[in-house]
């Protein structure tokens, strides 16, 4: 299903012809028709703080090269300095053989120039800074690059004939993806995924004969009966998606790519604005639009019934891991995301710059350094699946938030919003999971959370600082029976320091009246009730802040 969808994506785009692929180059070897090296031209540009290489459509490099005999595998028309510049004699000899062989008999200016270049001894460049054995070099003859776009037709045909000759010599099978007779492929092209140690890994491969003996397979057998055309198509489509910032999102250590069928650019742009919302209020129109789609309304600019695909990948040893693959109608996808944002909706703390909290921000709140890349390895993919499919949230998400809070981390809007969303979705909790303070709720954990916030505010008003948050919050949240009697005794001393403590005494009495007389303070709370306690604390604290802001405005007037 994944491969078929990627092949369809390639056929829709038709951006790269078979046998060719988009590759990057850092330098151009400027040679004349006699093969004389004139100059080495840098092709890199500076964008912000990073150096960006120039992209070309060049002959495919297949599954890459590795092992002790890697130097024997040279790439046509573009390669690193060891092969093209001759910085490694063995590699240069391999590159010489493939170019002289493929360009034999072709009488064009570009072919003659490259043949002459490789027929000469190694030409040492004058600029030592551009003599990089690992950088990629491309040929330039008379001001024209030798790639798919600018080179002559005879060179293109020589490369494509070589590809066809290889195909005809290999085993023919019926491709499981296309259903057509094609050459079975044993080594699939590698895919450049962020986080991979060697830079690229295949999506489909096998490396241990023991794992496949039960299926009658051997190590030399192809990993799947997929034809060369389909293998090239899916790898090209996936590499293109991974390189395009408009079709990928990094969530923790995972990478998610997405696309709409039949080139749905409008749907893809709306998705990225919804899934990764901007900080500013410019997202208000997008939010309003998504709410209309979530209600089932038709929007003329978008095909809400078109298929939308999401593929989440993670680096692994040997080959990458597929975290999940999801396909659904675009309208259903937007509806699931909007329902997720609705569950997260909570009174803001005026420090979070997002109206809708993005997934990376949620993951960052589960870590010590507030970095999404430090989140638990599987949590990113699990969270994405829940957001996009409407499934229950992973319990590890709420546990991670509670762990950070118990370790002394501040109860931010994001932490409270996530706890609220998990309680709504997983437990169908409604009473305490309101946007703002629910003053009518008699839910014991929620009321005790409000009471703790009241006692904290009372201490802050009396002493100018509040220390019970650091000393007692964790115990009060998990074991209220052992803490609240002590806190209530302390509050008497704090009340005595205030000239006007009527507000706090009234609120404290009202909250205590909502607790039953026999067991007002339970011995322990489970994780769900700890979440309700934290929501009560957060709601009451934000309510205090809102009243303070209102009073300051009235005094200014």
Short characterization:
This protein has helices at residues 2-13, 81-84, 89-102, 109-119, 153-169, 228-243, 265-275, 284-294, 330-344, 359-364, 379-389, 395-406, 413-427, 444-463, 468-478, 484-496, 502-513, 527-556, and strands at residues 20-25, 27-31, 37-42, 45-47, 50-52, 54-59, 78-80, 136-141, 144-145, 172-174, 181-183, 190-191, 201-202, 248-251, 254-260, 307-314, 321-329. The chain contains 18 helices and 17 strands.
Name the descriptors.
557 residues; alpha+beta; 43% helix
The computed structural class is alpha+beta
The tally of domains stands at 4
The total count of strands amounts to 17
Using the alpha-carbon principal axes, give the shape: elongated
Q: How is this structure best described in words?
A:
With 557 residues, the protein is of the alpha+beta class. The protein has four domains: 17-163, no CATH class; 167-235, no CATH class; 245-427, no CATH class; 444-556, no CATH class. The protein has 18 helices and 17 strands. Strands 2, 3, 7, 8 and 9 form a five-stranded mixed β-sheet that branches. Strands 14-15-16-17 form a four-stranded antiparallel β-sheet, sandwiched between helices. The protein has a two-stranded antiparallel sheet with strand order 1-6. Helix 3 (89-102) runs antiparallel to helix 4 (109-119) and helix 8 crosses helix 9. The termini are far apart.
């Amino acid at each position: 299903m994944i491969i078929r969808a990627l092949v369809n994506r390639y056929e829709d785009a038709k951006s790269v012809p078979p046998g060719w692929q988009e590759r990057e180059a850092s330098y151009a070897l400027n040679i004349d028709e006699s093969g004389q090296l004139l100059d080495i031209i840098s092709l890199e540009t500076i964008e912000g703080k990073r150096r960006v290489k120039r992209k070309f459509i060049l002959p495919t490099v297949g599954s890459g090269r590795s092992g002790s005999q890697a130097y024997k595998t040279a790439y046509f028309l573009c390669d690193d300095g060891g092969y093209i510049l001759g910085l490694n004699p063995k590699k240069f000899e391999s590159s010489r053989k493939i170019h002289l062989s493929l360009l034999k008999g072709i009488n064009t200016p570009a072919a003659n120039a490259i043949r002459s270049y490789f027929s000469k001894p190694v030409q040492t460049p004058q600029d030592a800074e551009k003599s990089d054995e690992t950088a990629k070099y491309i040929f330039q003859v008379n001001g024209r690059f030798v790639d798919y776009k600018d080179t002559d037709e005879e060179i293109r045909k020589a490369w494509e004939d070589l590809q066809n000759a290889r195909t005809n010599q290999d085993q023919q099978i019926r491709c499981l993806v296309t259903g057509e007779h094609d050459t079975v492929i044993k080594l699939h092209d590698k895919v450049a995924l962020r986080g991979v140690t060697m830079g690229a890994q295949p999506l489909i491969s096998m490396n241990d004969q023991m794992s496949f003996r039960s299926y009658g397979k051997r190590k030399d057998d192809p990993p799947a009966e997929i034809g060369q055309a389909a293998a090239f198509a899916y790898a090209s489509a996936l590499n293109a998606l991974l390189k395009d910032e408009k079709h990928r999102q990094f969530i923790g250590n995972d990478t998610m790519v997405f696309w709409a069928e039949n080139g749905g650019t409008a749907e893809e742009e709306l998705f990225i604005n919804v899934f990764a919302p901007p900080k500013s209020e410019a997202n208000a129109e997008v939010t309003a639009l998504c709410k209309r789609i979530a209600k089932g309304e038709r929007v003329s600019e978008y095909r809400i019934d078109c298929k939308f695909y999401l593929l989440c990948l993670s680096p692994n040893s040997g080959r990458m891991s597929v975290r999940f693959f999801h396909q659904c109608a675009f309208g259903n996808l937007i509806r699931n995301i909007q329902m997720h944002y609705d569950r997260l909706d909570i009174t803001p703390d005026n420090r979070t710059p997002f109206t809708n909290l993005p997934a990376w921000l949620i993951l960052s709140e589960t870590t010590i350094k507030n970095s999404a890349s430090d989140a638990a390895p599987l949590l990113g993919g699990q969270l994405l699946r829940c957001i996009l499919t409407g499934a229950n949230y992973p319990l590890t998400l709420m546990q991670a938030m509670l762990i950070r809070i118990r370790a002394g981390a501040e109860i931010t809007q994001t932490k409270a919003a996530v706890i609220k969303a998990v309680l709504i979705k997983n437990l169908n909790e409604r009473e305490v999971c309101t946007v703002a303070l629910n003053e009518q709720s008699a839910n014991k954990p929620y009321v005790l959370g409000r009471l703790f916030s009241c006692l904290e505010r009372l201490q802050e008003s009396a002493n100018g600082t509040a220390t019970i948050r650091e000393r007692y919050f964790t115990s009060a949240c998990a074991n209220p029976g052992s803490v609240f009697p002590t806190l209530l005794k302390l509050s008497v001393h704090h009340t005595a320091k205030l000239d006007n403590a009527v507000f706090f005494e009234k609120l404290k009495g009202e909250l205590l009246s909502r607790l039953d007389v026999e067991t007002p303070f339970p011995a322990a709370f489970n994780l769900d009730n700890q979440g309700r306690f934290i929501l009560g604390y957060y709601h009451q604290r934000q309510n205090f802040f809102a009243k303070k802001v209102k009073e300051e405005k009235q005094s200014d007037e």
